[in-house]
Fold this sequence. Notes:
Elements: E1 12-15, H1 19-31, E2 37-40, H2 46-52, E3 57-61, H3 69-79, E4 85-89, H4 94-102, E5 107-110, H5 115-142, H6 161-173, E6 180-183, H7 190-201, E7 207-211, H8 217-225, E8 226-227, E9 239-240, H9 242-246, E10 250-254, H10 261-273, E11 275-276, E12 285-286, E13 290-295, H11 299-304, H12 310-316, E14 319-322, H13 333-348, H14 358-364, H15 371-384, H16 394-403, H17 409-415, H18 418-421, H19 429-443, H20 448-455, H21 459-471
Parallel strand pairs: 1-2, 1-3, 3-4, 4-5, 6-13, 6-14, 7-10, 10-13
Antiparallel strand pairs: 8-9, 11-12
Amino acid sequence: MSKKTLYPENPVLIVDDEPQALKSYEYAFKTEGINNIIACNDSREVKEILKSHDIEIIILDIIMPYVSGEELLESISRESPEIPVIMITGVNQVEAAVNCMHKGAADYLVKPVSGTRLINTIKKNLQIRELQRENIRLQEQLLSTKAEHPEAFSGIITTNRQMQTIFQYCEAVAKSRQPVLITGETGAGKELFARAIHNLSGCKGNFIAVNISGYDDNMLSDTLFGHKKGAFTGATDNRDGLIEKAGQGTLFLDEIGDLNPASQIKLLRLLQEREYTPLGSDITKRTNTRVLLATHQNLHKLQSDNTFRKDLYYRIATHHVHIPPLRERKDDLKELLDYFLKLAAQEMHKKIPSYHPELITLLKSYFFPGNVRELRSMVFDAVSNHKNRMLSMKTFQRHIEKHSPVSEMEAQTISDVNWISKLETLPTLKDISGILVDEAISRADGNQSVAAKILGISPQALSARLKKRSQQ
């Protein structure tokens, strides 16, 4: 941990007239990475400290000279009710401590204070404070109609209202030190959202991204935690892991649904205790690295299959960002198309081509299983083959015909005649063709040329069918 890094952001105030007790509390806190501490052995100074500092939590001894803990609690509850106060009491003062709880204390601890109980109480109250601030930010965001820092999302091309709402949520949770789970289909832009959250967080460290799909336990441990010289064959030097490299920044773990059981336990410990052990070392390290996680898999199903730990899921899903697939925000297609055309033209040193409005209609009829990444690939392929002023639709059409769910996933259903055998009365060819035509025109937003491409017939043939139907 860097000496300049303080955790939590606002200091923990400890008030006790016994210097030895103060030293014990400070040692216990610093051992657990809580190093932003103000120690006070004179209760008369507390009011001035509260005026000059934003305090996160107060630990207050009940029996002190000058001003008692109970008196201070009454003042703090009146002037700064948002600050949790934990009372320290002797065995014979439990009744007084209970009275303090009625007066607004968050908790009380009995001397001699157990180090484990003290740390757990502090951690619990730190989390509560953090969640309270996040709730306030979320409420403020709900009253707003747009993101306060749109520049953080400049890499995400959208005007979609649902996406704007997600931006607002990201802003609200960005400064939290709790994990954020980002879900969405392959190609939806999960890493872009992770970078945006990092940029909004104010973290001074690096953004480190790693796709852990296919990592076994040793590989994951070495990648994240690093190793000591001689930890295994080939370990000729000490090597820092990605957590060390991220420092006080953000570590983004993609495809966490692929984690094996042993790695899941290590990740849970990292998130829960903020500690890890490099391979070959017997010294535990602490970290305040922010961890963001992503997957395209259904973690609820993985839990049902007993391949993903429930306790890990609930730990990582404190904040959850789900990115909608491109097919659910097709109003972004034109803006995305224009953006990728400009990007591709610049990269290939070509003029930005124009395109027929029918291209947008064609794209809207497509399912986009590969999401934004697939659209980008389609555009770059089209621009690379582009020679005339007007961008040809043939490249897009070939891609859609090859990758359409109708030709892949639905082909099996269409060729399976079992569903036909379950029908009491068979529909006529006329009925079936009418249903297909209507659906194609609907998907094509009324554009007959695009509808014909979907049906695999010529525009003239479709026009003839429609004309014949209107005359009947």
